[in-house]
Amino acid sequence: MYVVIIGGGQIGSYMAELLLKSKIDFVVVDSNHDNVEKLIKKFGQEHACYGDGTDPTILSSVKIQEADVVACVTGRDEVNLVASMIAKFEFQSPRVVGRVNNPSNSWLFNIGMGVDAAVNQADIIGHMVVEEMSMKNFLTLMKLSKGGHSIVQLVAAESCLASGKKIATLSLPKDCLLIAIYHGEELIIPNGETVIFPGDRIIFFSNDSIYNDLVRLFGSNQ
Q1: What is the tens place of the pLDDT at every residue in 14-53?
Q2: Where are the domains of the chain?
Q3: What is the assigned CATH class of domain 135-218?
Q4: Which of 50, 59, 62, 134 has the fewest CB atoms found within 10 Å of its own CB?
Q5: CATH number given to 2-119
């Protein structure tokens, strides 16, 4: 797998760390000399490129056409949007992720503009605050740019209805997909025979409108 990151600030650098730990090949493109020097010291010359992330020549030089994912995460929405469009429409990148800095610009980050998934930090933080108040066992990991769907994590409560039951016996909402379960440090790819235990961290792909149904199954029943 190969990932091109446009933007070598704090977010781009952190993403690079995660990719390095996962042994995924990547390169970070940034137009700031200081950022690039830091990236080179941290990750090596082969993982950093000085240049404009909206310049097709620069993008071609880092073999963006071979990238499985392009992440446009600079601090400027206009740069992220232009870079996303170039990646998608000029280089046919299969997966483009765009960072939204100003929430009022979020409507622009859609598939028609080359963005497969928009990461709206303000929106995610806002949802986390609301969820912390009303659904304390929920955490939104990512909101997708269309369709009202999210990837969420919840923790099965001690007294939840799902505790001790097989997934096949649960009346899961139609608009959700159970992706993974962390039982302690063990990662489980679930199937119908998988049993839910209190404290399990469960990753779902779900429609935002069914949170209450998930709370009913996995939240406290007291």
Answers
A1: 889 888 988 889 999 999 999 999 999 999 999 999 999 9
A2: 2-119, 135-218
A3: alpha beta
A4: 134
A5: 3.40.50.720
